[in-house]
């Protein structure tokens, strides 16, 4: 009965209620979306690399090593020798090793020289392997596999020819135009820096840096034999290692760091990612603060609406008292109305956000590399909804207590 | 002074309203009360006409009896209960169950239907849905209200209809006491007489004690028990 009366009362004040409802829907939508994007961004960040136990590079700093080897940001201070790579690869604790070589680029996208082990063992997200959306992994020296973003932005398809430039600048004055690479495969989107990477063979990287005459000779030999990896690199930028047992990570890390033949540094990507995220915690905190401010402002709006409605509802409340409604019933009535309004706003906000993320998901991934899950109905959202409802309940205490204390006589006197 | 509305008092031995040394001041800083009643009793089933000039304290007395106002000295007993000494929650519950009030302005909730106005009162009075249906079926023809009007918003009704709905709402819980404050002021004489007849018939039917407040001398003809507020109020001043 009181629920139905609360609904009638809301309908009676529909203009102010609709405005408050719109304000609440907007505020809750912003709050939920900021929170969802924050969580998704964090997840997206943490899913950049998976199943890699150690990353080995030249000593610099674990963040620097992580940034250039995983995020393709910055450059290695120095390389590690090929001999070191083969030694690492042959260690009994090591299950697989992926060499990576950085330093060149293609129209602003980083070029990563690697072996076929990369496509076999590199994983991201929840141990998801790389999948080719078209074509195949490279089988000859001058073939390349490009990330989904590179293909989309530069309109490349399997068979397209690309020229690699020296250095990592978007515009380069030195192009390796004697030896174009042919796109042999395009990777499916991953939401990681892989999407923005041009993957080539280590031999290819080595070849394009040969003196012109030697490169010509190599290309002519290559076209006659079609052989892969006829050139062994002298060094690589870093090595990603997968171990036989996770238990040996610390031991191996210590031994690599104490390796005497070459100066090496081994990092655990999970630890380095956590440290990197800590550095970005300021941004995360700002997002949280923005979310809280949005919530507070919308709840204050709700309280203002309820308090101002109390003035116009004084008579209605007094009539209810006269026909027997106890102050407790009136308290519950105001509380029910507020919670109905906030509850409905939460439901509409969630539906709108789900729809928006579903429709804009492709654009966000393509434009910002943000892979936002359209499914907003998560435990986090549920907790946030309960918090919003609890805060609404708390802030509604003021008008509800006002209703509780409404003096019967003063409210009815104008009509008596 | 012991003023008793005396008709039928031999037959009725249960007191519905008992007021003893009750005082009320609008301005609490004043020493002299605006209303002071030394002793006044109304028996169960009596129909009492409370007359007096405007501002003489009729409505104040009605509000004190309805629990809308709280007396400064708490000496009101209703149906044997020390009404003025009950907690506010208990007063609300008592009013919902035992007292019906009809105001001059009817005080219906305008945006809800006639039926819901009545159902709300029944809900607070603890009357079950079946009984509400039965009582309404009984009341509506007597009040010349069609079932069609039940779905209409109370605010859309004519003054006469609102007045009758206000009575239906006041009687839905079969109250022991009905307090009525100048409900005929907006009616012409024919409508007024018709209303009074219906009201008295219903009060007789439900054996309801009626306290009818009015300054209209024409209405006293409908009552055998008449009390002038000026005789009750020892304070003898303008109240409102």
Automatic annotation (TrEMBL), chain A:
Membrane topology per the entry is: Multi-pass membrane protein
Q: Which PANTHER family match?
A: ABC TRANSPORTER PERMEASE, ABC TRANSPORTER, MEMBRANE PROTEIN
Where is the ABC3 transporter permease C-terminal domain positioned along the sequence?
A: 288-406
Q: What is the top-level taxon of the source organism?
A: Bacteria
The cellular component terms of Gene Ontology attached to this UniProt record, alphabetical and capped at eight, are: plasma membrane
Where it sits in the cell: the answer is: Cell membrane
Annotated keywords: Cell membrane, Membrane, Transmembrane, Transmembrane helix
**Keyword Membrane part of the UniProt annotation:** yes
Q: Where does the sequence pass through the membrane?
A: 286-308, 329-351, 357-374, 381-401
What is the name of this protein?
Peptide ABC transporter permease
Q: Where is the MacB-like periplasmic core domain?
A: 18-205
From TrEMBL, chain B:
Task: Give the ABC transporter domain ranges.
Answer: 17-240
Q: Which GO terms describe its cellular component?
A: plasma membrane
Keywords for this entry?
Answer: ATP-binding, Nucleotide-binding, Transport
GO function term, MF aspect, one:
ATP hydrolysis activity
The entry's protein name is ABC transporter, ATP-binding protein
Q: Which organism is it from?
A: Brumicola pallidula DSM 14239 = ACAM 615
